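Subgroup meeting minutes
Present: P.N., E.W., G.H.
Scribe: E.W.

1. P.N. recapped why we're keeping a running log of single-chain structure predictions: easier to compare across weeks, and new members can see raw inputs and outputs side by side.
2. G.H. added today's entry (258 aa).
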Amino acid sequence: MDFFVVPDAASTGAIAAGIVAAVVRSKPETVLGLATGGSPLPVYAALAAHRLDMSGVRGFALDEYVGLPAGHPQSYAEVIRREVTERLHLDPAKVVVPAGAAEDPDRAAAAYDAAIAQAGGIDVQILGIGHNGHVAFNEPGSALDSRTRVEALTERTRQANARYFASPDDVPDSCITQGLGTILEARQLLLVVSGADKADILHTALSGPITPDCPASILQLHPHVTVVADEAAAARLAGARAAAGTTPVAVRSRTVGV
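Output recorded in log:
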């Protein structure tokens, strides 16, 4: 597990974007796993500055709300369109989001999981982490081998996402999310974390036991993980050694001009 500590959120984006850009340059038909939320957004902004030919890149979003109508500004389909597809000049036909508005969300979830496999799997999965340790929308208690499925959102997650909606009551109470087992099949996991409010959960995820109580602890099971965190988020990990088995985290501090 490689660990980069940088001064601020913008710098997390610069480092993570450099990692993604290197993969795309070596494999123009890279399959990216696309996360939304506050922490990953600087990655896409910084990646746009690389001015890569992204026409061959395919993308699969981590999750989508269930029940929002097509075109809803806070649906992840729209967020991905605005922040990723248009900004990076991806081919919209190659960027896929779970069908949260489908009549049968369970069937849509299974089809989405199959589509990832049919694409050859994900090369680099970008991830964030929630305050309760969720990755994608895998809430505490999710099975470590879970597949893409419909998941109920906890009240804490709904409250955290209420800032994006006109009212907390407008936040959907369920979603389609890639499962933890689906995420683990990606060839590389790239976790981006910023903010002092994430310091405790990041420490728990990387230094605590591997348990469904902290879904992000699955990162310890993956053979190729890169964590990019700002100093505030990494505050409790200074000098820590946490990874699968006995392999220590390689902490590499960088100062990035943005």
